[in-house]
From TrEMBL:
InterPro entries: Terminase_Gp1_N_sf (IPR038713), Terminase_ssu (IPR005335). This is Phage terminase small subunit. It holds the Pfam family Terminase_2. It comes from Marichromatium gracile.
């Protein structure tokens, strides 16, 4: 039985994933999946700590929402590497926003706000920095923790060293 539970989610583990996604109640999901009611809370905690089961839950949640890790990475890359020249033209005479019909759907998704103001049209793009940071974390570029810093505050009431 232990070997069956260690592989890809099938049987009760697969049922637990499906039941957990119904209401995000791990204890109730464990009971509905067929685990002993008296041990449902402990079983649910154990199952949720299992990395393979966690990955299965995330994948099922993404599939339910129509989202995949690849789609998220593509969207972040689109924002991170958006070129301002795709959205506006500028020269000595001023700045002109390009016609939205000239932009493909992927480029338009990088735009978070368009507003007509007293100075003309204002165009706001999604944050390149936030997208680059998220991509960097995903690619493992930011796994190194920052060096530890120790802050020493002198106690003004302490006796000076003799």
């Amino acid at each position: 039985m232990a070997a069956a539970e260690g592989g890809a989610p099938g049987g009760r583990r697969g049922r637990f994933v499906r039941e957990y996604l119904r209401d995000l109640d791990p204890e109730a999901a464990a009971r509905r999946a067929g685990y002993a009611p008296a041990r449902a809370a402990a079983t649910a905690r154990r199952l949720l700590r299992d990395p393979a089961l966690g990955a299965a839950i995330r994948a099922a949640w993404g599939a339910r929402a129509g989202v995949s890790a690849e789609a998220v990475v593509r969207e972040l890359a689109l924002i991170a590497f958006a070129d301002l020249a795709e959205f506006v033209d500028w020269d000595g005479a001023g700045v002109r926003v390009r016609d939205s019909r000239a932009l493909d759907a992927a480029r338009r998704r990088a735009i978070v706000e368009v507003r007509q103001g007293p100075q003309g049209v204002q165009l706001k793009l999604a944050s390149k920095q936030a997208a680059l940071e998220a991509l960097g974390r995903h690619l493992g570029l930011h796994d190194t923790p920052p060096p530890e810093t120790t802050l020493v505050i002198a106690n003004p009431r302490a006796e000076p060293d003799a």
